[in-house]
Design goal:
The protein is α+β, with helices and mostly antiparallel strands and 109 residues long. The protein contains 3 helices and 6 strands, in the order H-E-E-E-E-H-E-E-H. It has a 6-stranded antiparallel sheet.
Length: 109
């Protein structure tokens, strides 16, 4: 499945200069890793966000967010955010801050 390269470029720019960031093809799209842990990704036109199990319910209550059901079953701790939910730099940065904070809380791989 193709992914939105413009959204991937926006993420690259916002994560530029941050330690431990890498990219990997994953989930049929592109994933950004922080110290080897999946952090955020792009699948088609949606943002894939890893917020962790403790922030999962709160993230789902945010506008434009829905369960990540890539396998047909919801993956607790991950949400999809529609293109409308990351239209502005501030909106995208808000999601990135959440998922980078979670990835930073995990031990490096």
């Amino acid at each position: 499945m193709a992914y939105n390269e413009q959204l991937a470029t926006r993420i690259r720019r916002l994560l530029a200069g941050r330690d431990g960031v890498s990219e990997r093809k994953m989930f049929g799209g592109l994933a950004f890793m922080v110290h080897g842990n999946m952090c955020v990704g792009v699948n088609a036109d949606e943002l894939m966000v890893r917020v962790g199990p403790d922030a999962y319910d709160k993230a789902l209550r945010r506008k434009h967010a829905r369960e990540m059901d890539f396998t047909g079953r919801a993956l607790t701790g991950y949400v999809y955010v529609s293109a409308d939910g990351v239209r502005t730099r501030a909106a995208l940065m808000s999601w990135l801050d959440r998922c980078v904070a979670f990835a930073d809380s995990l031990p490096p791989k």
